[in-house]
UniProtKB/TrEMBL annotation:
Gene3D superfamilies xrefs: Ribonuclease Inhibitor
Record-annotated Leucine-rich repeat-containing N-terminal plant-type domain positions: 35-63, 79-88
Family: Belongs to the polygalacturonase-inhibiting protein family.
One family name in Pfam for this protein: LRRNT_2
Name of the protein in question: Leucine-rich repeat-containing N-terminal plant-type domain-containing protein
Record keywords: Glycoprotein, Leucine-rich repeat, Membrane, Repeat, Signal, Transmembrane, Transmembrane helix
PANTHER family xrefs: OS06G0587000 PROTEIN, POLYGALACTURONASE INHIBITOR 1
Organism (species): Cinchona calisaya
InterPro entries, per the entry: Leu-rich_rpt, Leu-rich_rpt_4, Leu-rich_rpt_typical-subtyp, LRR_dom_sf, LRR_N_plant-typ, PGIP
One GO term of the biological process aspect: defense response
Domain of life: Eukaryota
One Gene Ontology cellular component: membrane
Subcellular location: Cell envelope; Membrane
Signal peptide: 1-33
């Protein structure tokens, strides 16, 4: 999770993940899970290039009897519910959290037996090889975090069968190819992906988090991007996207973070972000080709802490209403075509960063 550029953003994700994990951990330690689940996990452990990983020492199968010639994989006493990183509901494995656990090897194929698994978090390990298409059989999954590993190959379309998925993090891997249309929900995808962002994403009515940072996506964003109105985190930072910000963003009243910086977006600034955003905290539109004026409605985002629109073609004056943004700490409007007086109201704010460099403004920088 550490790759998000902004503390608040990563805190948000960490929070999201913690909430989900807490749900799983509440159920830790129930009665015995099925022998198949234990065997599937044990089989994966054995396939790792470091099965002696100290974090997995609790992952052992004890024979049902003391008879050592019994077939161990069939007769299990020890419940995997007591193994480190494993959590259960009603005796079935429903969560596996081995974040940053130095796991070295492939993504387990045997996991398709864990049909009650709701959370799988393997972020920050040394997983390599492809994402097995069979992962699409884990239909109970609502969190799948494979970020920050060395996974390669393309994103399997079968992930589209995970209809309950609300957090998908594949960021920080070496995945190639385009986003499969079948992908029902998607999250962090910072890789080397290319092509356009499919229009079908607008149909993802459960999607709250979309991070497409640092790929090579081109073309326009889907028009209906925020038709569902549930998106909270949107990031398209550093791609090659063009065209306007979709109008549907006006419906995005739950939006908290919006990163569009470092693309070739264009369009009239006064026609975007015209909605009501009580939670909007962070906006970066820098390094694009936006034009038009900065309107007074920006002053109606009570939670805004960072507003960056540097290096565009914004004209007109700075609205004094920005002085109403009591939470604002960073305002970067440098390298635009702003004119007129710097509003004295900005002096009401406790700004850490005020960058108005390279405009045609007059007046004093307020204290
Ligand atoms: C141990 O298991 C083997 C094979 O299942 C069986 O032949 C043997 O009788 C068992 N020994 C005892 C002491 O239960
Ligand atoms: C244990 O069971 C597996 C498959 O269920 C089988 O392949 C293996 O030969 C068995 N081992 C023994 C010692 O019976
Ligand atoms: C132990 O093995 C016996 C015979 O295979 C089986 O009936 C029993 O359910 C097993 N006990 C546990 C706790 O798995
Ligand atoms: C656990 O099992 C009981 C009884 O079968 C059921 O009522 C309950 O809803 C189950 N809980 C979960 C979280 O699945
Ligand atoms: C990660 O895995 C590769 C092979 O898959 C291995 O060469 C490398 O040493 C591993 N790195 C760490 C930190 O374990
Ligand atoms: C998806 O989530 C809903 C609501 O929590 C649940 O009723 C349904 O069984 C889940 N579907 C799967 C495939 O787990
Ligand atoms: C989704 O599941 C259905 C039914 O199991 C299957 O026929 C289909 O091929 C799966 N889709 C993908 C993309 O794997
Ligand atoms: C990304 O992919 C392109 C071609 O598809 C390749 O030229 C480039 O080296 C890749 N970049 C990285 C960082 O893998
Ligand atoms: C998306 O929704 C539209 C209607 O809102 C529908 O016509 C279209 O087939 C859907 N696309 C997919 C891929 O589900
Ligand atoms: C915004 O939401 C309303 C009602 O939820 C809907 O009628 C309208 O089409 C949406 N507008 C856009 C641009 O998505
Ligand atoms: C303002 O944004 C520009 C463009 O992204 C950047 O180069 C500059 O360093 C920023 N100013 C400050 C004070 O961070
Ligand atoms: C916002 O600021 C403007 C001008 O500085 C002021 O007239 C207006 O009353 C303020 N609105 C709110 C809601 O505080």
């Amino acid at each position: 999770m550490v790759y998000f550029p902004i503390g608040n953003a990563s805190l948000f994700i960490v929070h999201l993940v913690l909430v989900l994990l807490t749900i799983f951990l509440c159920f830790l330690g129930s009665a015995s899970a099925s022998a198949e689940e234990a065997a599937a996990l044990f089989k994966w452990k054995a396939s790792l290039s470091n099965p002696d990983n100290p974090l997995l020492t609790s992952w052992i199968l004890r024979p049902n009897t003391t008879n050592s010639s019994n077939n161990i994989s069939k007769e299990v006493v020890a419940s995997p519910c007591s193994w480190s990183g494993v959590s259960c509901i009603n005796g079935s494995v429903n969560g596996l959290d081995l974040t940053e656990s130095n796991i070295n090897g492939p993504i387990p194929l045997s996991f398709s037996n864990l049909n009650k698994l709701e959370g799988l978090s393997l972020n920050g390990n040394n997983l390599s090889g492809p994402i097995p298409p069979k992962i699409g059989k884990l239909t109970s999954l609502n969190l799948l975090d494979l970020g920050e590993n060395y996974l390669s190959g393309s994103i399997p379309p079968s992930l589209g069968n995970l209809s309950n998925l609300s957090v998908l993090d594949l960021g920080g891997n070496q995945l190639l190819g385009s986003i499969p249309k079948e992908l029902g929900n998607l999250m962090a995808l910072r890789n080397n992906l290319s092509g356009s962002i499919p229009q079908e994403l607008a149909n993802l009515t459960k999607l709250v988090f979309m991070d497409m940072d640092g790929n090579q996506f081109s073309g326009h964003l889907p028009q209906g991007l925020c038709e569902s109105g549930v998106l909270a985190f949107l990031s398209f930072e550093d791609n090659m996207l063009t065209g306007p910000i979709p109008r549907s963003l006006n419906n995005c009243s739950r939006l908290r973070h919006a990163y569009f910086n470092g693309n070739q977006f264009t369009g009239k600034l006064s026609e975007m972000f015209g909605g009501f955003y009580p939670k909007l905290n962070f906006v970066d539109l820098s390094n694009n080709n936006f034009y038009g004026e900065l309107l007074a409605y920006w002053g109606r985002c009570p939670s805004l802490t960072t507003l960056r629109i540097a290096e565009n073609h914004i004209s007109g004056s700075i609205p004094p209403e920005l002085g109403n943004l009591t939470e604002l700490r960073v305002l970067n409007l440098s390298s635009n075509r702003l004119t007129g007086e710097i509003p004295i109201e900005l002096g009401n704010l406790e700004l850490y960063v005020l960058d108005l460099y390279s405009n045609r403004l007059t007046g004093e920088i307020p204290e």
